[in-house]
Amino acid sequence: MSRFRINPVKVTFYVIAAIFLILLPYYVSQYTVTTFIRIIYFGFLSLSMGFLIGQGGMISLTQTAFFGLSGYIIGIFGVERGLMFPWPDLMAIGAVAIMAFLFGMIAMGTHRIVFLMITLAFGQVCWAFAAQNTTILRGWSGIRGIRPFVIYGINFNEYQNFYWASLILFALGIFILWRISKSPFGLALNGIRENPRRMAAIGYPVYWIRVVAFLIAAVYAGLGGILAAYNTGIIMPTTIQLSRTIWVLLTVILGGASFFFGPIVGTFVAVWLDVLISGVTERYNLVLGVVFLIIVLFSPTGIIGIFDQMRNDKKFNSIINFFSPKKEKPNS
Amino acid sequence: MKKPDQPHALTITAVSKNFSGVQAVRSVSFEVPVGERRALIGPNGAGKTTLFNTIAGELVPNEGSIHFFGIDITRKSVQKRANLDLGRTYQISQLFLDLTVEENLYLAGSGGATKAFRFFGPWKNNKAELDWVQEVTNQVGLHKYISSKVSELSHGLQRQLEIGMALAMHPRLIMLDEPAAGLSPSERIILTDLIKKLPRDVTLILIEHDMEIVLDIADRITVMYHGSVIAEGTPGEIRSNVEVKKVYLGSSYV
Question: Could you give the ipTM of this predicted complex?
Fold first, then answer.
């Protein structure tokens, strides 16, 4: 018996969603497409934090620093030194990986609240450095004029092209991270989340597994940072300030930290909420806070948790089962 | 049982451990031959668990040395000892509560310094490892619960899984820390049966307060009191040992 079953309802849903996303620039405004680009780059960041929280039980407040670091590398080497694609981008990912590895070596010996504090401290050091360094990082004003490139005749300054490029990168990123979370490595990370002491006692190098997980997550934050820098054209200290980190943490919990797609759903909702209410009121944080409270109150496992509860609900299940073929029960 | 050229499964030489002045273990020495089932008994505070933790690697002894199949493991980390096939269970279950029985046993069965660094193929496709998990679940009587979450299992079933976790590691030595803690009399019978059915070539060290279980399982018994070993012998010898009676019943009874 094959362990993976194909669920036609799910496949149909994914195909429709993919077609909808690919054709998006043909039937919506530039503003809407740009909003989707925002969802994608914040999605990368949120996925980075959500992977560490959901799979590894590590609440890291450093991810935004990696997001900003890759933006600054793009700014310094792409704009000020004038290097061509793909050099600034590769350097950005390389810098993020090195930084994450070094910092991971320091932080991964700690757990829980100490880990939270040390990652908070590191994030704040990066932010303070960016704000105070005027010679390279240009202080509060940041580095401006970051433009996407023309590669093989495709001009990524056109928002449609940039959107498709981002979408492909995001889909690829999601697929790879999803595979990782189902792999023996992902399972080992889950074990560390549940009980690091037992993991050591059954022979796992707990420390190194955490370091590698941190490295993987940092690269995702870095990819988001590259897209963000190109899309906004500017990188400055406010990009990596603490309120941004908290916002990302909020999107992760809003969507459902224990679900793989939770962070993406959370980002989608939080960004659209921003767009929809910005015409009505400037108190975005207040509205987001209230929405967050209501959702977490009714479903501590976030938005996806609501659907998950529905799936376990008998009445709802009978409707779903009507549309999908009978599932085989695992042999008992 | 022991061939002359084969080292003992476990050799403990003059191990002492103190916690800021309190001498928990005083110069304890003993040997456990390969394949033996050894029980470690003694009243509360005798230093059994401390000694146990120095063998498992969670504590480093102040003095003395511990050899595992001839290898000095006195200062090796918990993980390194596990990689040498030393398996243990805990007095208070240390399971992955949010994972299924299958996932728990899969993790225990595929530990090691490098095996976790496989990033792409789903773990559910590794047939050899899953077959082993199936075999272990049958051995510890959990085949009905293979896809249940551990947090949904009863305490008794969790204790069975504790032993399964150690067994799944392909261990040469299993250390059981009060395996029957908190079990009802009927659950104790199931668990004792399960321990007795463990493969005979695996060496076993057992801490247990329930004397019925100890006398049923153990080939030899080591008795500790106030951090020292006061007696060692077969269950029959220990039963008639005057020192041991004194410790357990008080001197007025002897």
Answer: 0.87
